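Quick look at the format.
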Amino acid sequence: MAELSTIARPYAEALFASVRNEGTLEQWSALLSEMAQVAGHPDVRETLKTPGLSNQQRYELFAGLMKTPLSDKARNFLELLVDKGRVLLLPYISEQFDALKHQLEGTELAHITSAFELSPEQIADLVAALEKKFGLKLKPVVTVDATLIGGVRVMVGDQVLDTSVQAQLARMRDTLAA
């Protein structure tokens, strides 16, 4: 069976190609993120899988859960996904759409996980240092994880920079065990 991200790729690429010259990439990114959240909710997933529902009922149910009003193009896209049975792929479609948007902009997401809450100044300083290291314009996504004990873990694309105390302790444990 094909990977879900592989199945989602043509939908993300087609949508991206159709809206990239409209200047609405940010709005579509936000809309797809909201759609992905709705599609990712366990109750929604179960309800959409109900065999007795028609595609029109699935569409109306999903559209009714959206906070953002849907444009004609958004309604058409959602109807296509419902008709093809691909609405549950929205988290993957959103992710791949954002990757295409970042590629076009020459940016990359930096997933920063810190043991403690970082101030805006600390985030700006860290992002500046990371941009120099990776040679990319980075957009930070910051989360807090107390299990790191101290330090930060940064993921940019498939690269990981882990300076957390937890990682240092794990390296020490591995060295002592060897």
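Next, a different chain entirely:
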Amino acid sequence: MTNCIFCKIINNEIPSAKVYEDEKVLAFLDMSQTTPGHTLVIPKEHVQDVFVMDESTAADLFARVPKIARAIEKAFPEIKGMNIVNNNREFAYQSVFHSHVHLIPRFEQDNFAINFENNQTSYSQEEYADRANKISQNI
């Protein structure tokens, strides 16, 4: 899809902090970093949401989630838990209409309800790159 930001990331038209990539799936840090290590896992095939996703694409996408989650946990040993979120359609707060799974590490000191606020001004690009590097080294 030509106007999809995630398709542009897949095609390297827009930079991202990739933590995992294979022929079917891409994982990269969410720009908002709801918590440190907040990662998006997306199918490389453009599919809007779970309602139109075929079983093969779903299997490819969701089969990678545990592997990436474990890498995030190894990268940030202070993690106490993780939210795994998949929003579908605008009414359910989907804001990018290319299906994606949020892996949101939870830390003892965090105090957020899942609100997906943009926290880009809370960290430097160096911190962002370091987070991606820590995760990708643990996959």
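Residues 55-75 form the longest helix (21 residues).

See the schema section for token definitions.
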